[in-house]
Amino acid sequence: MQDVFITGTGSFLPGAPVDNGTMEERIGLLSEHSRKLKAASLRQNGIKSRHYAIDAGGNYLFTNAEMAAQAILSACDLARLDPRRIGYLATSTTQGDLLVPGHASAVHAGLDAGPMEVSSHQSVCGSSMMAIKSSYLNIRAGEHHTAVACGSEFSSRWFQPGFYSAIDFAGLSAEEALEYEFLRWTLSDGAAALVMDSRADDSRPSLRIDWIEQKSFADRFPSCMYAGSRTADPEQFRPWAHYGAPDEACGDGAVALRQDFDLLQQMFPVWMGYFLEVLDKRRLSPEDVRYFLPHYSARSLGNRMKALLTQAGAMIPEERWFNRQHRVGNVGSASIFLMIDQLMRETALQPGDRVLCFVPESGRCLAAFMCMTVV
């Protein structure tokens, strides 16, 4: 079995940073209560700036696939890798640009890199670790010597007011409206990528991937963060493609993205239980971790995570937490890639440093971990 090393990282964040005061120019308002719910959402998520692939004039600047390709080229540049040497490409996203074909094909087409093996991974934030593990296992098994994994999102196009035209916000309580509004003021656009190789880079620090763990708990929960059905209630569930026409699905509110906050809170003990299970299985002590890269949708949820880990006696010292969401936004599947890229570029990594990544996903409750060692 071959060892696997991250030898290059790259990111692509479209346009200039957008501060909290000018977000409305990009995604608009849904109702007379939108500004109040925006303020509440920003207090919870703690985000100060983010990037959008839509400008203030409503022009779409990039596709999802184009942003992913740019991030991959940036990672290849850092790794000094000719893209034509990529043997395997794994992509992750919440929603690609097309229903068919797969997102990986579109990203591959934007690389001008010749034929390669590809795989598309679609979920929410957790799709990132699916793509990373796919690339990792392909190198580990000796199928390829060089692979790339990437995460990319174009969330803002789904947050345009037209996608919510069927929702009667005047008839909703503030709590009900927040199920739609929170994600609009939290998620944003961008992409990032990792180059993986069977050999470390002798000229600068590389990250050896020690192990990756992922588990779904969808057998215990209905959908929590979802789009494509008006409701997650099993008795009323109706996929968008089961309507007579796409406009009928839109007219029934089936395409609007939403988050069930009560269900989200029920997932935290499950994630933390899995966290303890992984630490025990891998015999990893919190004190062994030099850098902890946790992905969470909001600062308030990060604080909940800290409280539960402290209660369980598994808290990694807070000064070792590394998260830059406040300045780049929550970029879904791209977030963990962005954190690794920022870690590689902004910190003085030392041989032997252990790095632990944690990606929980509320879509239908899953979580993933990756442990790496600096070499």
UniProtKB/TrEMBL annotation:
<keyword id="KW-0012">Acyltransferase</keyword>
<dbReference type="InterPro" id="IPR016039">
    <property type="entry name" value="Thiolase-like"/>
</dbReference>
<keyword id="KW-0808">Transferase</keyword>
<dbReference type="Pfam" id="PF08541">
    <property type="entry name" value="ACP_syn_III_C"/>
</dbReference>
<dbReference type="GO" id="GO:0033818">
    <property type="term" value="F:beta-ketoacyl-acyl-carrier-protein synthase III activity"/>
</dbReference>
<dbReference type="GO" id="GO:0044550">
    <property type="term" value="P:secondary metabolite biosynthetic process"/>
</dbReference>
<dbReference type="InterPro" id="IPR013747">
    <property type="entry name" value="ACP_syn_III_C"/>
</dbReference>
<feature type="domain" description="Beta-ketoacyl-[acyl-carrier-protein] synthase III C-terminal">
    <location>
        <begin position="279"/>
        <end position="358"/>
    </location>
</feature>
<protein>
    <submittedName>
        <fullName>3-oxoacyl-[acyl-carrier-protein] synthase-3</fullName>
        <ecNumber>2.3.1.180</ecNumber>
    </submittedName>
</protein>
